[in-house]
Amino acid sequence: MNTSRDWEKPIRRLELLMRLKSFPVAFKLLEHKQDIDKIPFIRRMKHKSTLCQLINLVRNFDWTVGADLDDFMSLMCPSIIGLTDIPEYMKDGTFRSIVWTKSRADGKKYENGIPRIPLGKYEAVIMAPLVYNPFDPDIVLLYANPAQMMLLINALQFEDYEVMQFFCVGESSCSDAITRCYLTGKPSLTIPCYGERRYGHAQDDELVMALPADLIDKALKGMEVLYRRGIRYPISYAGAEADIAGQFPAAYQSESRSGRLQRNPRHLLLGVTGSIATGKSTVAKMLEELGALMIDSDVLSREVVLPGKPAYRDIVSFFGEQVLSEDKTLDREKLKDIVFRDIEKRKKLESFTHPRILEAYFEQVERLSQRKEPLIIQFVVPLLIEVHWQSLFDHLLMVYAPEEVQLKRLMARDGISEELAMKIIRSQMPVEEKKGYCDLVVDNSGSLEGTRKQVKEVWKKLQEIQKKRLNTNKES
């Protein structure tokens, strides 16, 4: 049975990011039981088994297994996945009342609460470690601890967010995970039941999630982005009694800072961002010509590291005088070369400069707040998204150009090789990802005339937004 894609690379990456202890399980139902034998390396048990036993053999012993109705110990397991119906003594609650419920009435409620795949379509099931590219699965089973599962949920919610709801019918975790996933087409997380712990060897710290196979890429994409933002497994602990300000996520720090910003409600704050060589300065200049006031983070970044400034002292103390020019000013090229090679040193530099740049921005906004007339103030920040300053602005404008245009411009502008230019581009957040954060976009990949036309449209929209806000404030 051929696969439509290579599953190994994404699954290896997922295993690494989540630090999984067992293999993700490719799970597929077959309409014809004869197809079991078409699967390479398939094993059929010589004795009757439970569904959770088979899953255990796959995820912990890297077996490829198959089973039809006759291979199961009880009718309970195959009834969950649509291979058979359950007998009357199960339907009327007798079976559940023997152990799990007080009465047959409760047992019947219990049985009715268990989701099952409808009868008539499937005759068999096959499972294998997905990393081996055995076949295209319907769903993927992942076993992980609560922290790992929380990270997976965060990754799935990163784009096209929706609240995730999970269920627990009790003693039938395979129905909560596998069947609900089949029936809803959505991820389904549950707690392994008693049987899965006893026969399937689910551990005390494990949860199980069934994931539609076509969501694997979405999960991995979200996890990669979160990883770059410092959300990783294992999760490092901040002390219960410690001052956690330095460890608190930057997004929350900027949110708290935004509450301290003294601003005029008649002024609209616009964050202008983009990736390297997309033309941020060009667009910002066009907006300035139309009437927007400009605060440039590049100018502020130079001012906050002038000799004698706190950031200057911090940088020299940490990096040494090797980063100074003969006149004792910072040699930005030397410093850039150091931090470009070492991400930890880059983070250290940013911890010295970013808070000071932000304070300088606040000072300028507060100074402008004394002006009574309506203003549109733009702050040009290349790494606005990366440093989580979104909450400081009313609107975000992305100056966009596709990667191939960035590459061509950067090579021409800086006179560098394609390899180095690509390395610089890839060190930043992907331009397509950054675009998703902004509610306004100017595509600067074409002619200046085309860009100017888009900027005028953006300016008109900003003026309309500001006018509407002023009218709302007047009415209130």
Overview of this structure, please?
- By secondary structure, the protein is α/β, with parallel strands linked by helices.
- The chain has 2 domains: 8-84 and 119-228, no CATH class; 250-297 and 364-475, 3-Layer(aba) Sandwich (Rossmann fold).
- It is built from 20 helices and 12 strands.
- It has helices at residues 8-18, 51-61, 76-80, 88-91, 94-99, 104-112, 146-157, 173-184, 194-198, 216-228, 250-258, 280-290, 297-303, 310-319, 332-341, 343-368, 403-414, 418-426, 431-435, 448-475, and strands spanning 25-30, 42-43, 64-68, 124-129, 139-144, 188-190, 207-212, 267-274, 293-296, 375-380, 395-400, 440-443.
- The chain has a 7-stranded mixed sheet.
- Helix 1 (8-18) crosses helix 10 and helix 14 runs antiparallel to helix 16 (343-368).
- The termini are far apart.
- The mean pLDDT is 92.
What attributes does this structure have?
Rossmann fold, 45% helix, 5-stranded parallel beta sheet, 2 domains, 476 residues, 20 helices, single chain
